[in-house]
Amino acid sequence: MQAAFRLARHSASLRASTSIRCLATTANPAHVASAPATSASSSTAKPSIIPLSNVEAQWEKMSTEEKATVYEQLEEAMKKDWKLLSIDEKKAAYYVAFGPHGPRAPVSKPGDNFKVFAGTLALMGVAGILFYAIRLASPPPPRTINKEWEEAANQRALEQKMNPITGIASEGYSGKGFVTHK
């Protein structure tokens, strides 16, 4: 049902963007599959019925008028019971509604993966250089960040009986306390 709404919406926008209105006649599925694919030569002539078999392969080569004709054919076909549609009509409706064309067309080209990989490596290199430049320009760490000061902080915590239940002043404490340096 959503495909029908999307198809109708896309068909309406396609008709609004082109100056030529394509009118398609309702035909039975057997006639649709056997009709030749031709485009209208003038704006007053009715376009011919486009075969719905293998729409995926023909889609890129079709003109705007032929695409509009296919949309209208599919609109008429989808008004019927979906169980009565042929496999070609179902495939065409799915491709037109969800296929990789228009805004859903893949945009990657050969070599794009290498460009993304090289760009990522370059950005990581710039980030590393920036990191080490900042480290070189920064002042040395404070004098309180060394092993002697951390051991003194442990002694002070024991004197003050800091965290007597589970911490450094508790009975049987076997941790390092505030010491993080080796």
TrEMBL record:
It is a single-pass membrane protein. Its main location: mitochondrion. The chain crosses the membrane at residues 114-134. Belongs to the cytochrome c oxidase IV family. Pfam families: COX4 (PF02936). GO terms for cellular component: mitochondrial inner membrane; respiratory chain complex IV. This is COX4, subunit IV of cytochrome c oxidase.
